[in-house]
Amino acid sequence: MSGVGQGRRRSPAPEPPACGAAAVDPEPDGEDVARAILLRLLTGSPRTRAQLAAALAKRDVPDDVATRVLDRFTEVGLVDDAAYADMLVASRHAERGLSRRALAVELRRRGIDDAIAAQALTQVGDESEVAAARRLVERKLASTHGLDAATRARRTLAALGRRGYAPALVARLVRETLAREGSPDDLADGADIDDLHSYE
Predict the structure, then answer these.
(1) Is residue 98 a contact partner of residue 164, using CB atoms and an 8 Å limit?
(2) pTM over 0.70
(3) What pLDDT digit, counting tens, does each position of 28-50 carry?
(4) What is the CA radius of gyration of the chain?
């Protein structure tokens, strides 16, 4: 017969269940959550660090966690603001004819640092910008061919103003294009176009 000294054995501590709702960690690791959010966002399209930081803040990811994860993504090249800025400048200038001024505004709006933006904008030289403006002027004037010269000039100035081109440059290109068309001298010689600098 067992002695009294042996006493009763203690029940082992309950193990966490291997499956079921109780097995799921109710508090997932903050960095894992941040990584999952970033990977999902970056799968769709490249984004700037500022855009990703804003997305994490919206999901209530703590600032220190967001910073650590973003630093790691930057180290491995998944977040690269310089590459993003280069890509945006090249594509928006080629496809939409945006001027350096308009591109700078867009880069700033996306949270790109001014120094990185300035480097990216060196892709667009003076000649490239004038050539893009000339193409836009010719396209806009061609699309308004049936209208009077003053209206065509005013609409062209407005269209290029929205793309960030300086009024003096646009007015000169409008004069040149209208002169080649043989438009009325009062606009072709620049006497009245300079009064159209206020965009519609």
Answers:
(1) yes
(2) yes
(3) 688 999 999 999 999 988 999 99
(4) 31
